[in-house]
Specification:
The structure holds 2 protein chains of 2 kinds. Chain A is α+β, with helices and mostly antiparallel strands. Chain A has 16 helices and 9 strands. Chain A has helices spanning 18-40, 42-65, 76-86, 95-109, 122-133, 135-138, 150-153, 173-178, 190-202, 209-226, 232-237, 241-248, 259-279, 286-303, 316-347, 459-480, and strands at residues 359-362, 365-370, 373-374, 383-386, 389-391, 396-404, 407-415, 417-419, 422-424. The two termini of chain B are 41 Å apart. In chain B, β7 (77-86) and β8 form a beta hairpin. The chains are: A alpha+beta, B alpha/beta. Chains A and B meet through α1 of A and α7, β16, β17, α10 and α13 of B.
């Protein structure tokens, strides 16, 4: 018999290894990757593949150069490469994922000591770096193809560009949830992200507290900052929020090790993300928020300690969780009924077309939403307000037109674009621009000469305004049965 | 959390090899090597010389200080030698080598209706120590300091270590003797109630005990221990089925799980009015007080895939592991590790020439696939160790501080409160030897505190 092994206890260990943890993360990312490739084509697959190869390669080369034990076998570089790749727009130039991979692995991870010693999430930091260094490429997204059809067509050619939800596009909740929207490769499909999250939580790889507290925190602060719960689900499904909350915020080295710590961390990350989205210049705040929250982690771990068995200490976990949960519940509870209550005031007196019952508050007045566009009427019955919108190539406009007794009484300019509660306003449109319309009979609008620009020097805007007023007039005629 | 505690892990039980094997006697070997230290405390003082004839149960070494325990001969024979040999702990201690011969047995004098003090004295006389593995002299544990009183005796029948089934078999086969011992112990400390804690997967033992007239089963489904319900029954002994989890048998965790009382950090169970004793200790108490038998043999679980005849054997102290291997038909070719105790906290043994002691609860002969060996990787910061620590420490930070020789940080994160259960090392994906480094810094810290 060869000499028996003598080692310190315990002599048995659990089946979990670093490698199989990373492998589980890779498996969880597969749905996002598949969705990304379906929506954006095979070019997306190339981008992700280059990123992974670059990450693994740079770690391998680094270890060789520093004469250290080779660590690519633990698959953490694969995970970093995958996550970074899925964070990029699909049609970036090929050097971008390569540079990103090297940056993420060498600068953020290896130079600080390798796995477990990075100060911030490598993929998030690399993404921010790429965003600052190659802003144009990183902010041009393509519109998604139909699933499957797009796989081969989208390989090399630049297809039509699309606006993401957060930078002004208008997507439906369904599009945002299933992922058929412009955005980074892996972050568009909320459904795939949730599948990945479920897998990771069930397998015990990530702590559910982190994604949950990030999402709830974003929900809470979005509600506070925008003053209503409208568009909340859109905000949550849009952008890199879910992807970041599930796959990047949960990186072990850069998240706290205690349950309470994780809740505080997720909460602060949500706050940062919402503040950047709302008040910052960038439409998308998640990557920055991740890095900022990562920087808080050493402090959290120093001060938030688990309650030691036998020490008479107040259970911080319970108190913190309850306070935060109560806060969020209060916010949502305050805003939901407020907006709902306003809605019910108007639907009863409404008699124009199919009414969706969502309310939007703008400039102090309430409007009823109809079929996705602001397009409604209000009281009293003989005064009709129409809120038409018109899109022209460079000019789009939302107006509010008041028609009484067959004459246009007032036109109010609302905004250029409006979605969520982001409003872009064209400063050059003033109330006097609408003077030519006032007092005109509705039936005359069709013949109205708008050749002389309503808004000087802005032909398209003028055209848009005229189309909008004409839409209001047509609507009015329809309702009154052409009586006036 | 019903009858459970925070943290802990669920290693594979591996008890099916020996759970249904009855306790069986063995043919005592030709030679025994009885160590004079089989307990925590000062070594016993040798009371025999080479060439002496000893009877079975005769005292070999006496206990001269308070925290000490006498050692007895498990066989009748002649003292061949008194030599220094390596024990399982790795230290060189004196062993009394006895060659088997024909002879009689010595029993301690009969006790009629013993008082609490008489019971305690008999426990000391018989050399009874904590047989769960720690080996703390039981009479010292039962001798409470001034002003400290205890209302509950908690019998630790959790047996949370994988493979071990000796306590379980005692509950099934020696129930009457066991309960007798429990009653003696309760009387010895003046406890008004007794709680027997058994892990809930030992269903047969629970039902067997619950059937007894003097035992009431405290219903465990979904609720914390409700003292009132069982108290109303007026029975002395309450049986609690605790959640099967490692380390359920850890003293502080067991007290919390069964009674809901929290032993203060750095304190003793008596601080919350509880004294905890192992099942086998209770059995040995019965034999000592009722029958006058000293403690020189015990039931040991011999298990592992390399064992041809696994079982629960009644072994004499001083029997070498080599003899145990022969007796239980161990396949030496497939043997990868020998463990004294359980796989979570037991000590690996490098040579078969060490001896069975009063505290050997199990001897495991494991094959390569039953043992985990891995080179440690860097810590990934996953926090699984924090989650599983039953004492609420942060092992990853203690490990880091220990490697950097930073004692202050290690103390801050809880090194002194570590019970060395092994949960942290068990769950670590990087296979880091966390317990080892925590014990290292703990020893340094305790040494510093003593100064």
């Amino acid at each position: 018999m060869s000499k028996p092994v003598v080692q310190s206890s315990p002599h048995v260990t659990s089946y979990r290894t670093t490698k199989n943890v990373m492998l589980d993360v890779v498996i969880a990312l597969v749905p996002c990757l598949i969705a990304g490739v379906c929506f954006f084509g095979a070019r997306a697959l190339l981008t992700v593949a280059l990123c992974v190869l670059s990450a693994v390669g740079s770690e391998a080369v680094y270890n060789l150069c520093r004469k250290k034990k080779q660590t690519i076998g633990d698959l953490s570089a694969v995970v970093t490469g995958l996550i970074l790749g899925l964070n990029l727009p699909s049609h970036v130039p090929v050097y971008l994922p390569i540079v990103g991979g090297v940056f993420a692995i060498v600068l953020v991870k290896m130079l600080f000591g390798g796995i477990g010693k990075n100060f911030a999430n490598p993929a998030a930091t690399a993404r921010v770096f790429l965003l600052l260094a190659y802003t144009g490429a990183m902010t041009s997204f393509i519109a998604p193809h139909d699933a499957m059809k797009g796989f081969f067509t989208g390989f090399m050619s630049d297809t039509a560009s699309g606006a993401t939800y957060l930078s002004g596009g208008s997507q439906t909740l369904g599009q945002l949830f299933f992922g058929s929207t412009a955005g980074s490769i892996g972050e568009t499909s909320a459904l795939c992200i949730l599948l990945g999250a479920a897998y990771l939580i069930i397998r015990g790889v990530i702590d559910w507290r982190i994604p949950l507290s990030v999402v709830l925190s974003v929900a809470c602060f979005t509600t506070i900052f925008s003053g209503s719960v409208n568009g909340l689900l859109h905000e949550l499904c849009a952008g890199g929020l879910l992807f970041g909350a599930v796959f990047m915020a949960t990186d072990y080295a850069t998240s706290p090790k205690t349950g309470t710590g994780r809740i505080i961390y997720g909460f602060s990350m949500g706050l940062f993300a919402t503040m950047i989205r709302r008040f910052g210049s960038y439409p998308e705040g998640m990557s920055f928020a991740i890095i900022l929250a990562n920087l808080l982690v050493p402090f959290i771990d120093r001060w938030v300690l688990p309650v030691r068995f036998g020490q008479k200490k107040v259970d911080v976990t319970k108190i913190v969780t309850l306070v935060l949960a109560a806060m969020m519940a209060v916010c949502i509870a305050i805003y939901a009924p407020v907006t709902v209550r306003v809605k019910s005031k108007f639907t009863a007196s409404y008699d124009y077309g199919a009414v969706q019952s969502v309310e939007k508050k703008l400039n102090g007045t309430y409007y009823v939403e109809s079929q996705g566009k602001l397009d409604g009427h209000m009281y009293p019955p003989d005064t009709y307000w129409a809120d038409p919108s018109s899109d022209h190539y460079f000019g789009s406009v939302w107006l509010s037109v008041c028609i009484k007794d067959g004459t246009i009484k007032q036109i109010v300019y609302l905004a250029d674009t409006m979605h969520g509660d982001k409003v872009t306003v064209n400063e050059s449109i003033k109330e006097e621009n609408f003077a030519p319309y006032l007092g005109k009979k509705v039936s005359e609008i069709a013949e109205f000469n708008y050749e002389s620009d309503i808004v000087a020097g802005a032909t398209y805007t003028s055209k848009a305004i005229h189309d909008a007023v004409r839409t209001a007039a047509t609507g009015y005629l329809q309702i009154t049965g052409g009586a006036q | 959390m019903a009858f459970s505690f925070h943290g802990g892990v669920h290693p594979r039980g591996n008890k099916d090899m020996t759970a249904s094997v009855s306790i069986c006697n063995v043919v005592v070997p030709q030679e025994v090597y009885v160590p004079i230290v089989q307990h925590i405390g000062a070594p016993a003082t040798i009371a025999v010389a080479v060439g002496d004839r000893v009877k079975k149960g005769q005292i070999l070494a006496t206990a001269e200080s308070f925290v000490c325990s006498p050692v007895f001969s498990p066989i009748a024979g002649t003292v061949k030698a008194i030599e220094k040999r390596k024990a399982v702990s790795g230290k060189y201690i004196d062993h009394v080598v006895i060659v088997k011969e024909e002879g009689e047995e010595i029993l301690l004098p009969q006790l009629e209706n013993p008082t609490a003090e008489q019971i305690r004295a008999r426990i000391r006389e018989a050399g009874i120590v904590g047989m769960g593995g720690a080996g703390f002299p039981t009479d010292v544990k039962l001798t409470l300091p001034q002003g400290v009183s205890v209302d509950t005796l908690l019998i630790n029948g959790a047996e949370c270590e994988p493979y071990l089934t000796c306590d379980y078999r005692i509950l099934l086969e020696r129930t009457e003797d066991f309960i007798c011992g429990v009653k003696y112990l309760a009387k010895a400390i003046g406890a008004s109630k007794v709680v027997i804690a058994v892990e809930d997967n030992k269903t047969e033992a629970i039902s067997r005990l619950a059937k007894r007239e003097d035992v009431v089963l405290v219903n465990g489904k979904g609720r914390r221990y409700k003292a009132t319900a069982a108290q109303k029954s007026g029975k002395l002994i309450q049986l609690v089925a605790v959640r099967t989890k490692y380390p359920q048998g850890a003293e502080k965790q067991l007290i919390y799980a069964t009674l809901g009382r929290v032993v203060p950090d750095g304190g003793l169970p008596s601080a919350v009015g509880v004294v905890v004793n192992n099942v086998h200790t209770a059995l040995a108490t019965c034999y000592a007080v009722r029958d006058g038998k000293a403690l020189y043999e015990r039931i040991v679980t011999v298990s592992g895939k390399a064992v041809g005849r696994p079982g629960n054997y009644l072994l004499p102290t001083g029997m070498t592991y080599r003899d145990v291997a022969t007796l239980s038909d161990v396949n030496e070719d497939s043997l990868a590790e020998i463990i004294s105790g359980g796989p979570m906290m037991g000590k690996a043994v490098y040579s078969l020439d060490v001896a069975v002691t009063k505290t050997t609860s199990g001897i495991l002969f494991l094959t390569a696939d039953e043992v985990s060996r891995a080179n440690p990787d860097p810590c990934i910061g996953c926090g699984r160790c924090v989650k599983s620590c039953p004492m609420g420490l942060m092992p990853l930070f203690i490990d880091k501080a220990a490697l950097e020789k930073d004692e202050a940080t290690a103390e801050k994160y809880g090194a002194l409160s570590c019970i060395a259960c092994g949960c942290c090392s068990y769950v670590c994906p990087a296979k880091r030897p966390l317990v080892q480094s925590i014990q290292m810094i703990k020893t340094k810290l305790m040494g510093r505190k003593k100064q």
